[in-house]
Amino acid sequence: MERRRISSGTEWESHVGYSRAIRAGSQIHISGTTATDEDGDVVGEGDPYEQTKQALANVEDALVEADASLEDVVRTRMFVTDIDDWEAIGEAHGEYFGEIRPATSMLEVSRLIRPELLVEVEAVAIVEG
Questions:
Q1: Which residues have a Cβ under 8 Å from the Cβ of 39 and sit 6 or more positions away?
Q2: CA-CA distance, 122 to 77, in Å (whole number)?
Q3: CA-CA distance, 86 to 25, in Å (whole number)?
Q4: N vs C: which end of the chain shows fewer Cβ within 10 Å?
């Protein structure tokens, strides 16, 4: 089975030893993705809705690079630092996945890798062959 690595080029990938995404056969697994721009700066500081939108835009970019799309996503996981923000986070998720409706989980965690990050999203997609 062919295994293809997708990289966003962030410092964390080489330091920690992971890829933004892996395409293995028909499956694409997207690593935990946060609300950072191409320079690694946090987008939407203090705003869980904006951070979720940016994280999902980053997920979408990785999917496109892996020759897939949001419609191929079958699972998402959202790690959030304050579960009381679930409505804003859920609203952003719904804007991306409203008709697709993948299986999903939203879990509160004590913190993420940087204190200004509020949301981290993982995704799994399945594509034809």
A1: none
A2: 5
A3: 34
A4: C
Count Cβ neighbours within 10 Å for each residue of 89-125 and write b for 16 or more, e otherwise. bbebbeebbeeeebebebeeeeebeeeebbbbbbbbb
The Cα 35–Cα 50 span in angstroms is 8
The strand pairing partners of 108, in sequence order, are 80
Q: Sheet containing 21-24: give its strands across.
A: 3-6, 21-24, 27-33, 119-126, 73-80, 103-108
Whether the model clears a pTM of 0.90, i.e. scores above it, the answer is yes
User: In order along the chain (129 residues), what is the average pLDDT of each group of 10 residues?
Assistant: 82 82 96 92 97 98 96 98 98 97 98 96 93
Q: List CB contacts of 88: < 8 A, sequence separation 6 or more.
A: 47, 48, 49, 52
Q: What pLDDT digit, counting tens, does each position of 99-112 carry?
A: 999 999 999 999 99
pLDDT tens column, 20-41: 999 999 999 999 999 999 888 9
